[in-house]
Design goal:
alpha/beta; seven-stranded parallel β-sheet; 35-stranded mixed β-sheet; globular; 15% helix; Leucine-rich repeat, LRR (right-handed beta-alpha superhelix)
Length: 1065
Amino acid sequence: MGVFLQMLTVLLVIMMVSLQGWLPLGCLDEERIALLQLKDSLNHPNGTSLPSWIKADAHCCSWERIECSSRTGRVTELYLEETRNEEMGDWYLNTSLFLPFQQLNALSLWGNRIAGWVEKKESLSSLEVLGLSGNNINKLVASRGLSNLTTLHLYNITTYESSFQLLQSLGAFPNLMTLYLRYNDFRGRILGDELQNLSSLESLYLEYCYLDEHSLQSLGALPSLKNLSLRALSDIVPSKGFLDLKNLESLDVSYNTLNNSIFQAIRMMTSLKTLILPSCELDGRIPIAQGFLDLKNLEYLDLSYNTLNNSIFQAIRMMTSLKTLILNSCKLDGQIPIAQGFLNLKNLEYLDLSYNTLNNSIFQAIRMMTSLKTLILNSCELDGRIPIAQGFLDLKNLEYLDLSYNTLNNSIFQAIRMMTSLKTLILNSCELDGRIPITQCFLNLKNLELLDLSSNTLDNSIFQTIGPCDLNHLQKLYMYDNDLSGFLPRCLANLTSLQQLDLSSNHLKIPMSLSPLYNLSKLKYFDGSDNEIYAEEDDHSLSPKFQLESIYLSSRGQGAGAFPKFLYHQFSLQYLDFTNIQIKGEFPNWLIENNTYLHDLSLENCSLSGPFLLPKNSHVILSFLSISMNYFQGQIPSEIEARFPGLEVLFMSGNGFNGSIPFSLGNISSLKGLDLSNNSLQGQIPGWIGNMSSLEFLDLSVNNFSGCLPPRFDASSNLRYVYLSKNKLQGPIAMTFYNSSEIFALDLSHNNLTGSIPKWIDKLSNLRFLLLSYNNLEGEIPIQLCRLDQLTLIDLSHNHLSGNILSWMISSHPFPQQYDSYDYLSSSQQSFEFTTKNVSLSYRGSIIQYFTGIDFSCNNFIGEIPPEIGNLSMIKVLNLSHNSLTGPIPPTFSNLKEIESLDLSYNKLDGEIPPRLTELFSLEFFSVAHNNLSGKTPARVAQFATFEESCYKDNPFLCGEPLPKICGAAMPPMTPTSTNNEDDGGFMDMEVFYVTFGVAYIIMVLVIGAVLYINPYWRRAWFQLIEAPSNDPNSISYGFPSIFLIKSQASFRSPARAQRSTMQE
């Protein structure tokens, strides 16, 4: 009985200890209060960071950026990177705030503008890891509070002037084992001497620092150093400082330009286990092999992104301890006998040969690597002719195989079938089409956990017989971008271990309810987008076993009815995308309330309607919200900042919102993207938008905003995309964007802006798109515009601009062949309207990256067309129509090889059309109508065979097809002709002259007729005057004016009086 009681007591103790480890403890009250005080200090005087830290919530361990001990409930880690707004100035850290955190061992304060400490640091006595990167600290003062510090992060923390003090102060931390000094300027600083007191230092990271030979010459004074990273330094890495680093085990000198001497030094590092040398501009001329001869202990070697020669593989052959070898993108082309370098690598476990061209011999060598666990042969130009299968026959231990972006044949799948240990198989973009019996390779792959068959042309036969559905341990299945069709295969329900499933971009019919997947209890991620999504009647007796974290069901516009009922049972969602599914109904508040960790919510074009009702509680996690292209109405709720304080992207375009922009939006300090376009918003654009420091994307186009532009966007230093077109804005551009040097696209078109283009326009040095069309701008184009050397598209059409098109302006615009995509936002949100091929079109999506064009049409420009325009070889659209340009068409236009639309109509151009324009094979629209051109039309070849008569009309001295005038026939004298230009710009507009003369003539006739009608004496005298010549045979008969006068006089009488007058006469 006693023994039984003892055993029972032991079991109870074990149970209590176990339960204690699992109890959901809140943090201690003293720590919660300290956290709130720390928040107040970070936000002083007017910051809004850390919105989830609220007094009413006692469970502070669930607050953002906090980690607690599962046993004690005490705070152990604080990650407070960039929590203080930099506009609030320097921050002096009160370290006494950390006194209650007795178990705090990791503290990150990166990027908070810390300029110094307040009070002693004894409060940080348990701290082991401290991150102070990106601050303004020039000196660290050691104390008992930091005596246990083992890891210190000091990235980008000092300038050259203050680096000396900082380095000297580091010597006071004797227990420091790991030191990160990335992105600092240490030129001229003797690092070894200044760090020699760090006797325990084992790891030193100096990546991306400014160093010179003096900076490294005494690194040998750190005898305990085992790990050294000198990645991407500013100059050639010297070797003198390495000679005494006998204990070094890991060396990273990647992304540098290396010389011979460093390999002599590397040869002496006999303890080296890891050597990282990618992108070192090795080209075969440097004898790097000699540096590897004595590296018998080397286990990890990375030589990727270099050009290797034969000798290096002789040296690799001697590295019998090598476990990881990375030769990615080394320009191996089959001529270098690399196989001989692999013959003795019996211990190799990881081999990456991707982005090379391989030959037969390499696979014979791979076959001998029986310890190999990971093999990456991505993009190796394998095309089925090389018998790679023979290299796989003995790879019984292989766990990871990547053959993507190759062309595979049948034999390879016979070999894969034998890899029974395989856990990851990637066959992305291998031109698999269903005719290759790949299902047979799954027969023995019972351990497979990840299978990627994406971007092939596989059909439903893949699921027949023995296929992916029989892999019971499969956790991730990717089959996007194939030819799968019909309903979801029922066998997918057998994959009970599945966590991620991607079937996007196929031709499947997927129910919104996802009912075929209800049995997959471990499923966390499902992507069925770009398929046919349909609504089915939910079975109320069924509920899914899964708790999804990510759902992507964007479609081509299918679906109907309400939100699927299974969503009401989901409580772990983080990402949800139902774009283009016609759900209807109101905004789903319950979805946000049920899923407190929801991060991204996209409900674009879902036919949702009614007012935009926000949830009752605050949700700080939500950062991306898109409800564009729905039918929401009413005003934008003013509570949006209180409910979603952590928003980074808010898209609400294409709805029926009215009223003004709520002031509360300006309080969302994290907001980067704001799209309120295509609504009925009105009033002035609020000035506080210019104070949103994080804003990068702003689209307020197609609304009813009026008044002037906001005075300044001074605080919006990150602003890159501004779309304000199609409003009722007026006044000058003034100084609005003077300090917005990062702006990439500026669209102010279709407004009522006046004045001239500002001379400070060159301040927008990164500008690529400038759209100012359909305004009332006047004056000449400022010379400063020529300094925008990044500009790829400019539209100044439909204004009142004048002067010459300056050659220096055009010639200094090198339209880039590549566009550095800025992809933090969905590219579909970026759009602009531009006239091309005589049609105004809206451009959206990836085409924006490649579009280049100039539109100066419908202005008052004069002078000749600068021939330098012909140097813009990448331009696609050029429209100079409806101006008063003179002179010939520059022959250099034949260099515009990429041009698709060329419109020079309605000008005063003369001379011949350059015959070499027929070499513009991309040209789809061409017009030189309404000019004074002469000579023969271009030959009817290539694209010019499609251009009709209207492209050349109203050029009286032009002949040849497709015009009816035949060349060689008698031609009238060459005199200038009118161009029917609305803004002709000459001494007198002939069309106005004719109208004025006609009106004056009619008035004169009417006045004379009225006088003769009223005064009988003058009337009789007039008739006697006109009858006298008729009796004189030598006189000239009265002409058209007299006859017209008589007819006019008769017409203004009443019928009775006219008859009576005729009888009297």
